[in-house]
Design a protein that fits this description.
Distance between the termini: 59 Å
Shape: globular
Helix content: 25-40%
Bound molecules: guanosine-5'-diphosphate, magnesium ion
Number of strands: 7
Radius of gyration: 17 Å
Order of helices and strands: HEHEHEHEHEHHEHEH
Structural class: alpha/beta
Length: about 220
């Protein structure tokens, strides 16, 4: 009996990611896929960016969560186009979902698209969404061992944002260990220390954004 083996289960997903990439490229949009644990500050970082750049960069947001429209409501309050994807329990976004969201919010006219992935440090890493850049968001409150324990995210991201640095005085967070582990995994990747609460370091994040937006702004 011949055993059938299904190879490349990811193939369909990869093809959809290419369609997303093509659509975004044609529309001249830079898309950021934000990946982190729940509560690290992805939505807060998007909100801070909209407050700083919203008047000179045309921003759109796709929010991914297992349930609720709470993050989308936070973004909508800032007057930015937003689509919420509910994965109904699913632990990551896939490119097909992004395509459907793009049907609801055509990318034409946008310059910067945030895609906030489902809060999870494992599953979202496996799925290419067709994004231009992958952003790893970590927070000091999670502990310094996350890059070492979840290396795939930090290996595949183009930038790491370390959020909640305002809390470091109250934590046993070892910044040198965090930076050292990230450097070992991805020597060239910038690590930006920010606090969405106090605004510290947001300027460095905006500088990074300015660089990646140069082709479209
Ligand atoms: N102290 C502190 N709290 C923050 C900071 N950024 C976000 N938070 C809080 O952390 C919680 C989770 O933030 P949120 O942006 O919803 O995280 P997400 O789940 O990754 O989107 C909220 O209560 C935020 O107010 C920060 O820089 N410092
Ligand atoms: Mg969120």
């Amino acid at each position: 009996m011949q055993i059938k083996v299904v190879k490349r289960l990811m193939e369909a997903s990869e093809q959809h990611a290419e369609v997303v990439r093509q659509r975004l490229r044609e529309a001249g949009v830079v898309a950021l896929n934000l990946i982190s644990a729940p509560g690290s500050g992805k939505t807060s970082l998007i909100e801070a960016t909209i407050r700083e750049l919203g008047n000179r960069v045309r921003i759109g947001v796709i929010e991914g969560d297992p349930d609720t429209t709470r993050d989308a409501e936070r973004i909508a309050r800032l007057g930015v186009p937003v689509v919420q994807i509910n994965t109904e329990g699913g632990c990551h976004l896939e490119a097909t979902m992004v395509l459907r969201a793009l049907d609801e919010m055509p990318p034409n006219g946008l310059q910067l698209l945030f895609i906030e992935n489902v809060g999870n440090l494992v599953c979202p890493v496996v799925f290419d969404l067709g994004e231009t850049y992958r952003v790893a968001v970590a927070s000091a409150a999670e502990g310094h061992d996350k890059p070492a324990k979840y290396p795939a995210l930090f290996r595949t991201a183009q930038v790491t944002v370390l959020n909640k640095i305002d809390l470091i005085p109250y934590l046993d967070f070892d910044e040198e260990q965090f930076a050292c582990d990230v450097r070992r995994l991805n020597p060239q990747m910038p690590v930006l220390r920010v606090s969405c609460r106090t605004g510290e370091g947001i300027g460095e994040w905006l500088k990074w954004l300015d660089e990646v937006l140069k082709p479209v702004v």
